[in-house]
Design brief:
The chain has 427 residues and is of the alpha/beta class. It has helices at residues 12-27, 41-46, 68-75, 83-88, 91-101, 107-110, 112-125, 138-146, 159-171, 182-192, 203-208, 261-266, 274-282, 294-297, 314-317, 330-338, 353-362, 376-388, 390-404, 409-423; strands spanning 3-7, 31-36, 51-53, 129-133, 149-153, 211-214, 228-230, 254-258, 287-291, 306-309, 323-326, 343-345, 366-368. The chain has two domains: 3-232 and 406-423, 3-Layer(aba) Sandwich (Rossmann fold); 244-404, Glycogen Phosphorylase B (Rossmann fold, 3-Layer(aba) Sandwich). Helices cover 44% and strands 13% of the residues. Strand 2 (31-36), helix 2 and strand 3 form a beta-alpha-beta unit. The longest helix has 16 residues, at 12-27. The chain is globular, with a radius of gyration of 22 Å. The chain starts with a strand and ends with a helix. Keywords: Antibiotic biosynthesis, Glycosyltransferase, Transferase.
Length: 427
């Protein structure tokens, strides 16, 4: 039996990403704890996993996210542009994106108490393996301090590794006064607190783990030379009661409209109202399931063929759907691929959403609508195309089969056990 510590910061999407692997570990007989900020504890325990609170509350969805610098920096990022275009923008762009992608300006990394508490718990509990969410670099530091092996768990495309490659290529070409390396500064300070002197040779392992667990489908994953264990992403949508209409076969094509941050900003803003959007889509001969909260609805009139719900589990809803309109967040597009449902992607600006949309288009399993080009009429036209052209459903079925061919979390446990034996105490 191994002791396995999962680390994750206070984000629902990131927590949901670890649940299937954590439970596979428990089902294999291993002892599993999940460590995160105090405001993640209730979410962890709702999954049936034991929680360890570390650091201070993060309040990702409240006052912290409302800080202007966070919104301005994230929304102005350039990760949505194709990689070649980003490289053409040069050193300043790559340095800025690398720093932001690694999160060193954000409190879930900058908060020293999060790292210190994680290290304190790991040294007391002595895990054999630390599996860390790809943005919780407290994980590898805690592993080094306690002598555990450590693996990084991705939540989307591996932009951290790609940006690190870009950073290294351009760093040596800069004059000394421009050779800024904020990540080395961050790791040097944190490692010194556990009595370890940072060396440049440690950088790759601190950024990407002794190995990486990649839940992205093979056709979406970025090329890499890192030691990697591929794993099928198994959707987890949280504890819920399934409404009876979800598993009732619809009389018309059922379409799910689930809105991420970028779409929530468009709705009710200067570009389009909620009522206008729903009325325009309802002109199609469909049954529309729209995930909208009360603040988005206001006094909008709901057409007869539209069902509005604040939340519905996609894993249970999508088998009955003919299409899904979404923002390409990791959990959402994983549900779409798992059930072979064609997508219209209106990408969020935060991580890999725009690139995922382009990849769906390349595979013929969906269409992309850039937020800057969004109108209800443009969305209706693309949705009609998806529903009328059977090739989109066919290609969505192809990528579904690609996903189902990947090893499940249960399948990879022996490999993780072997890697833990080889790497424990080596950091």
């Amino acid at each position: 039996m191994m002791r396995v510590l999962f680390t994750v910061f206070a984000s629902k999407a990131h927590m949901y990403n670890v649940v299937s692997l954590a439970w596979a570990m428990r089902a294999a007989g291993h002892e599993v704890y999940v460590a995160g900020h105090p405001d993640l504890v209730d979410m962890i325990t709702s999954t049936g996993l034991p929680a360890v609170a570390v650091g201070n509350a993060l309040d990702m969805g409240g006052s912290w996210q409302g800080k202007g610098t966070w919104n301005q920096e994230v929304l102005s990022r350039g990760l949505s542009a194709p990689h070649e275009e980003q490289l053409r923008q040069g050193w300043d762009h790559v340095l800025g994106e690398f720093t932001l992608a690694c999160g060193v300006r954000y409190e879930f990394l900058a908060d020293q108490s999060f790292v210190d508490d994680m290290v304190k718990f790991a040294c007391a509990w002595q895990p054999d393996l630390v599996v860390w969410d790809a943005l919780t670099f407290a994980g590898p530091i805690a592993a080094i301090a306690s002598g555990a092996a450590h693996a990084r768990l991705l939540f989307g495309l591996d932009y951290v590794n790609r940006l690190y490659d870009d950073f290294r290529q351009l760093y040596d070409r800069q004059p000394p006064e421009q050779q800024d390396d904020p990540l080395t500064d961050w790791f040097t300070g944190r490692l010194s607190r556990i009595g370890v002197e940072y060396q440049p040779s440690m950088a790759t392992e601190l950024l990407t783990g002794q190995w990486t667990i990649d839940p992205m489908p093979s056709w979406m994953a970025l090329p890499t030379k890192l030691p990697t264990v591929s794993m099928r992403a198994v959707p987890y949508n949280g504890p819920t009661t399934i409404p009876s209409w979800v598993y009732t076969r619809p009389d018309k094509p059922r379409v799910c409209l689930t809105l991420g941050v970028s779409m929530r900003e468009l709705l009710g803003g200067a570009m389009v109202s909620t009522g206008e959007l729903l009325t325009t889509l309802a002109e199609l001969d469909i049954e529309l399931i729209a995930t909208l909260d009360a603040s988005q609805l206001d006094s909008a009139k709901i057409p007869g063929n539209v069902t509005v719900v604040d939340f519905v589990p996609l894993n249970e809803l999508l088998p009955s759907c003919s299409a899904i309109v979404h923002q390409a967040g990791f959990g959402t597009h994983t549900n779409a691929v798992t059930h072979g449902v064609p997508s219209i992607v209106i990408p969020d600006p935060f991580w890999d959403e725009a690139e995922c949309g382009r990849l769906f288009e390349q595979r013929g399993a969906g269409l992309t609508l850039a937020p800057a080009e969004f109108t209800p009429e443009a969305l209706r036209t693309k949705l009609a195309t998806i529903l009328e052209d059977p090739s989109y459903r066919y290609h969505a079925g192809e990528i579904q089969q690609d996903l189902l061919a990947a090893p499940t979390p249960h399948d990879i446990i022996p490999r993780l056990e072997e890697l833990t034996r080889l790497n424990r105490g080596r950091a």
